Amino acid sequence: MTSWKSGMDRRNWTANTNPEVITMMIRKRKIPQILSGNVLIVGLGLMGGSIVRSLKEYSEDIHIQAVDIRPDPIERALRDAMIEDGAVEPEEPEKTEALLGNSRLVVLSMYPAGMMRFLVEHAKALRPGTIVMDICGLKGDFVEEAQRLMPEGVEFIGAHPMAGREKVGYENGDGEMFLGATFVLTPTERNTPETVSAMYDLARVLGFGRVREVDPMEHDRLIAYTSHLPHVMASVLMQAWHGGDDVKAFSGGSFRDVTRIADINENLWTELFMMNSQALTESLRDFMIALGEFTSLMEAEDREGLKRFLKKSGDRKREWNREISRSELGGAHGK
Question: Which residues lie below 8 Å from residue 15, measured CB to CB, with a gap of 6+?
Fold first, then answer.
C-alpha cells in the first residue's frame, strides 16, 4: 500500500504549497465511510494522541472526540484543535456515554484490563451501526470477551498497530508514527467483510504500509517472540552488568540499539507480560535453548560451529529483511 504520507512526497508538497492551499487540499481528501461520522478515541496517551494527529493531518473535516481518565490531555487536545469534545472518565459518566452513543467508530487505546472494565461499564451506551476497535498489544481471549459484551448491532474488532515509542503521553504523540508500519487485524467469525474492509481503509488513512490478518490467539504467540521477548532481553541486559558505572563510557551504538527499549513503561509492560505469560514463557524457553547452544560452542572453543551459528542467524535476518522489503514495495494487503 502506498501511503499519501510518504516522506519525500510530503516534504515536497509542504515546501511548494502555501498554507491556504495546504488546508484546502487536506479538506478535499475523500473521507472513507468508517470516518464519516464521529470518531471517539478512548485513551488519549501516546497511541491515542498519534491517531488523533494522523487523522487530522489526513483531513481536518474528520470529527474526533476523546475520553481519558485525566483532564490534562483532553484540555490540551481541545486547545490544539485536535478534538471537538471530550470527557473525563469516571468523573463524567453521562457525557462519556453520550459520546459513545454518538460515534461511528470507537477506538479503545488503553491497557487491556482497563479496556475490559470500560466495556463492562459502558458498552450499553453503544448504538447499532457502531464499530469498536481496540489497539492494545494483546488479543487472545480479550477479543472474544469484548465481542460478547457488544450490544446488538455493534461490532468489535481487534487491531494492533506495530508502532510505538518509549515515551508516553498525549504530548509525545506523532501523526507520522505509523508511516510504513504493519497494521495487524484479528477478525473472527463475528466480524463482517464490510468491517474488515473498513479497517483497511483506516490503515490507509493512518499511513500504514501493510495490513495483516491473524487469529487472536496466534497473534499473542507471535507477539510474545517479536515484541515481548525483546523487551525482556533489553531489561535483563541492563541488569546483567555488576561492575562499576564506568561501563557507560564503553557503550557504543550496538549497546544503545539493543537496550533502547529497556526505557520501559513498567506498568503497561508488567500487565502485558503477565497476561501473555504462557506464550512469553515458551519464547523464553526457546531463547534459553538457543543461548545454551551458543554457550556450549564457546566453552568447546568450536570456531567452525560458532561460524555456522552466526551465519544461520545472519541468513535468516537478511531473508526476513528481503521479505519485508518486497511487502513494502508491493503494498499488498493480506494474511
Answer: none
| CA dihedral sign of residues 324, 326, 328, 333 | negative
Q: What is the DSSP letter of 335?
A: -
Kindly state whether residues 278 and 198 are assigned to the same domain: no
Assess if residue 248 is contained within a domain: yes
Chunked into runs of 10 residues, the chain (335 residues) has average pLDDT values of 36 43 58 95 96 95 96 96 96 96 96 89 97 92 93 96 83 92 95 96 94 94 94 95 86 90 89 92 97 97 97 95 67 41
Report CA dihedral (303, 308, 312, 317) to the nearest 10 degrees. 40
| Beta-strand pair 105-108/39-42 | parallel
* 323 located within any domain: no
Instruction: Give the strand order in the sheet containing 155-161.
Output: 85-88, 64-68, 39-42, 105-108, 131-134, 155-161, 182-186, 210-213
Q: What is the DSSP letter of 190?
A: T
325 domain-assigned: no
| CB contact at 8 A, 28 and 52 | no
Are the beta carbons of 90 and 120 closer than 8 angstroms? no
Domain around 144: 7-214
